[in-house]
Amino acid sequence: MEKTKFDIDNENQWCPGCGNFSILKSMKNAFITLDLEPRDLLLVSGIGQAGKLPNYLACNMLHGLHGRALALATGAKIANHNINIIVNSGDGDCYGEGGNHFLAAIRRNIDITLLVHNNQIYGLTKGQASPTSALGMKTKNQNHGTISNAFNPIATALALGAGFIGQGFSGNMQQLTHLIVEAINYPGFSMIDIYQPCVSFNKINTHAWYKSRVFDLKDSGHDYSDFKKALQLVHNKNHQIPTGIIYKSPGIPFHERLDVLKNQPLVEYSFNAAQLEKTLGIAQFDKGDNQ
Amino acid sequence: MHQDITILIGGAAGQGIQTIGALLAKVCHNAGLFIFSVDDFESRIRGGHSFHLLRISETPLSAPCFEPDILVAIDTKTYEYHKNTLSSHGIVLYNSNDSKKAESNIYNIPLELLAQQAGGKIASNTIAAGAVLAILGAAFKDIEQVLKEQFVKKGKSVLDLNLKAGKSGYDIGRKIDSSFCFDFTLVKHENMVMTGAKAAALGALAADCRFFPFYPMSPGTSIISNIVKYSDQLPIIIEQAEDEIAAVNMAVGASFAGVRSMTSTSGGGFCLMTEGLGLAGMSETPLVIINAQRPGPATGLATRTAQADLLFAINASQDEFPRFVFAPGGVIETFDAVKKAFYLSEKYQVPSIILMDQFLADSAKTESGVFEIGHEHKSFLEQETKLYQSKDYLRYKIIDTGISPRRVPCGSDALVRASGNEHTQEGLSIEDPENRSVMVEKRFKKLKLMKNEMAQPLVFYDNSSFFLAAWGSTKGSVMEACAKLREQEIDAGCIIFEDIWPLDFNTIKRLLENKKLIMVEGNATCQMGTLITQQTGIQFNESILKYDGRPFYPEYIMKKAKQIMGY
Ligand SMILES: Cc1ncc(C[n+]2csc(CCOP(=O)(O)OP(=O)(O)O)c2C)c(N)n1
Ligand code: SF4
Ligand SMILES: [Mg+2]
């Protein structure tokens, strides 16, 4: 394998054959395609196998808590909307523990790119069901099978009005690279749910299982600007898995909704003692204000 | 003796009790008098029983008073609940159409009826305010001025109605004989009337806070409401988060990216924030959290006060890491504590927690301290002009102080890696036992220096035989109780803790040795006393504890202290 400027010398802890390697490779490819430098990137992640990813490439990194990556990333983006933020999360991390932040990030249309490594299982904690595990899936801890219906992230994102929704598969790096490039280029919240085989714990949704079901939306002539078509795709019952851009439409990102961020990022304002003095003056002498 | 009067205005929620209080406070404030007011209200919008206590004095005040000289009873409940706390010469203004007086000190005033005669029932609060101000000795022009300020925006008819109502109440008040007169022609001062919540908001601004994610929870919300007022003039973003977990994580994320951030909440929200607090501790990211305490556990009493989160704040989140904890004792103290919390959090790259409470957040007082911007906004970030080869920068570089140079991400070729996982100096996850030990020690190296930053507790009357020991918002009431006990020739001193953690307890041990300690705390288990014992081995002798959701008043502390001291 040829070396890239994003490679670092740090022992990778994933199992051999894990789909995460292809996601990492696709990300590096996308960064190179976009002519990005490690210094330009902030990777934010939660906890899980997916969450480890920022440790395996050259970048700025904020490795936070299980489920909370989107909230951390939202804060960082509000502080400095000029930085390019990518969140690596797992299906449990993002749709389970961090479900509320997933909903909020879509509603805010915060300009970050979310990559969900969806292996339909909890990998790091050794194979419990995740929100995206199919109903009835048996695991060590769900020995009679899961009792809840599976969460449909794409349908949820569509329903909430997300402006960029992609479905990827780690087994198709070329497509995934392209999706990541498109997602980063999209101004606003962009998400790609990426099916990723977990070779150690998910014996049902294997590489071959996905391979026999995925098809590329480019080949089927899908119009990703058509909301109704997108909805039909996610509710299709023929057990095929559409991959590519599911839906894309422009929206106003969070930072463009705020006047104070029109001219410069929050972090670039300097402390304005004179203005503050004035403000404090007003604050102190509004006499009798006992609210 | 100088004049010192307390007025209690009580009624149902929605009857405008606070409006009367605000009117009185404004007129008194304009005359150069000092006030201290407490709101006691239920977690409901209408009905029930609420009251507003307004203490007025010719000299500065730092505590409320619970024995009203003038009881304004808008409803019967108020009279029934409070008649027994009336001071010895106290009078009652009773909202009643009855012309017969039940007792010689009760004055029936038909508020609604008079308001109707003035032009509208809605002005009955102004009738009450007019009457009280007349009793206090204000001239009608003083009232007129404040009414104009208050109602001019609402149009001429509303203003006229209120002026008429004010005069009608005033004329009634003039006929009531009392000894509660102030001089309303005093030299005016430039002090302000301010709540703890507002002081906290201003402190944050003075410390260059630019991001304030929050989730509403009383009494932490009033801090947000106060900062919102200035957000159009300053570069500050206030964002309602989806929950407290998001709020704290958003604050950590923004702080990591170089923007000073804080969030405020109450105990329940603080519970949800504890994992995020630990993330700030582990990733060495500055963070300021205000926990405005209320009684708990769980939802507890939503609009009431407590001091029961002290040990929780010191220990919150799993495992161990250095942090600062402050519990300011008053309004200016809150302003200064918030500034200090930001400053130290940035300097040491550790989280700071400020313990306020409903009493401190919502009570208003005339503050004569000076609100200075100071130097707390100073940045501790390493300048981007310092250059590194990309791999040379170590976010968690081991150095003597434990405080590694901190930079913002994406500002230079130096790659900044922060992590909540145990990490190498570079910031990469690692489980190596040696590295783990070195990193735990690195984080704790800061502790010694942190202790030096903390102020020692305030001590008054060092040689007294009994010592009242308190922390946080109880400060004013304990100090007043102590002073009044001494006026009665009772040998009491006091010690007040405001900088809470980490403290140099060796010094405190020397201070407290051989003293008879009476802990005064708003909790049931004497948390500060427990901490003192744990850290110094010194046992507290007695305690005055209160966990009814209501604040400490000096009278209560005096009564209990005397019992303990055998008077
Ligand atoms: C607060 C908290 N709860 C639970 C855990 C344990 N935990 C770590 S990763 C994980 C689930 C990971 O699953 P997923 O997000 O799907 O990531 P994967 O490992 O499959 O990539 C859990 C439950 C934790 N670290 N923190
Ligand atoms: S457990 Fe599964 S997801 Fe985790 S590294 Fe191994 S194969 Fe990948
Ligand atoms: Mg998973």
- Rg of chain A: 21 Å
Q: pLDDT under 50 segments of chain A (min length 5)?
A: 287-291
Physical arrangement of strands within the biggest beta sheet of chain A: 2-1-3-4-6-5-8-7
What proportion of the residues of chain A is helical, as a percent range? 25-40%
Q: Roughly what percent helix of chain B?
A: 25-40%
Succession of helices and strands of chain A: HEEHEHHEHEHEHEHEH
CATH class type of the largest domain in chain B: Alpha Beta
Shape of chain B: globular
Q: From the 3D coordinates, which CATH architecture of the largest domain in chain B would you assign?
A: 3-Layer(aba) Sandwich
Task: Find the count of extended strands of chain B (DSSP E, 2+ residues).
Answer: 21
- Strand tally of chain A is 8
CATH architecture type of chain A: 3-Layer(aba) Sandwich
Could you state the CATH homologous superfamily of the largest domain in chain B? Thiamin diphosphate (ThDP)-binding fold, Pyr/PP domains
Largest sheet of chain A: 8 strands, mixed
Average of pLDDT of chain A:
95
